[in-house]
Amino acid sequence: MVLRVYDKDDKIVCILSNNDALLGSFQIDDGMRLHVEDKFLLRKQIDEDTGVGKFEMPLEEYAKRTDSLQAYLKGNKLGKYNAEEMEKREAERKKEEEIEEAKITNFKLGDRCEISVPGQPVRRATIMFIGEVKFKPGKWVGIKYDEPLGKNDGMVEGVRYFECSPKYGGFVKPLYVEVGDFPEEEFNLEDEL
């Protein structure tokens, strides 16, 4: 990155290209203008203007290299190259799918429920949709929260799954939905005044 410093009369005072120096170590006064040139963005623009694209190596050639991340992962049997770990993950995924399939058969539209997503507060809601969606794989439960704690109004990426007020709708995996006798919570906001 290069900084160009201009005075009040728009005359160049200095050019700062020493990235280790702090801006305060230079003689800059009120009313001066800083002009920042980001060499990375400039390089990207030049590439776009000249039609020269990013270097890309064919996957077959990359797989033959011994000094790549892929070679390191394969050599140390890490990530997707660890067969045991991948089998364990697949078994966990299948078990989770079976639990979700069993739970979802007990859900009906209009059921009251509590949503317990890890890392988020427990929220009460009403089931408004059950099934597959276009934005993510698997089966999902569309819910209308009792409070405006959701992310949508029942529409995601232009597809309407159900109707509710903005910020009251959401989609959760069946695993985090517990159906039961959960009456709507009453929020008496008059006490707050």
Automatic annotation (TrEMBL):
Keywords assigned: Chaperone, Cytoplasm
Signal peptide start-end: none
Residues annotated as domain CAP-Gly: 131-173
InterPro entries xref list: CAP-Gly_dom_sf, CAP-Gly_domain, Ubiquitin-like_dom, Ubiquitin-like_domsf
Main location: cytoplasm
Intracellular or extracellular location(s): Cytoplasm
Coiled-coil ranges per UniProt: none
Record-linked SUPFAM superfamilies: Cap-Gly domain, Ubiquitin-like
Record-stated family: Belongs to the TBCB family.
Name of the protein in its database record: CAP-Gly domain-containing protein
Biological source species: Ranatra chinensis
